[in-house]
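fyi for ur records
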Amino acid sequence: MVFRPIKCQIREYVCIQAGISVSWAAPRSGEDALARAWFSHDVVFEETVNSLRIYDPTTALWVSYEPMSELIDPSSVLDTILIGETEPVHGSEFGSYKFHGRVLDGRIALVRKPADPGMHDLGVWVFHGQIFGGFDFVGEWTNTSNAKNTPAGHGWFCLAKDATDCMVRQ
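which gave:
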């Protein structure tokens, strides 16, 4: 059993206006939409200081989401998207990655890709699970990459807000 720490910053963006959210991707033949965090192929994310713009290839439109805050009534949220990256101080030690994900009916899917496209051999991982106790994101991870030197694998994980004791089991 191997444990490996994951240090990342994840930001939450929400859509509260009906009819303007990013499309939910249906799986293609032999594919699991969860492996893409319910996004269409070729979705593009552009994060600014106070919003997240997403290009939805299904509709060929850009859609804007706003940062979640205590001023937003959670019952008015129609869609939640997560964006993040490895904390810079930990990138050299554990590798630099970008994250994107989505929340669906209390479930979370978070895709982790190498920040440098040239490092695709590091693999693409999907973390899926739920939030417990309001702070811990707990579930299973799967290596979905078919890169040459990337071994297949899966295991369980725990990510916590501002915690140092949650690890990924490999």
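The chain is about 5% helix and 45% strand. thats all i got for now
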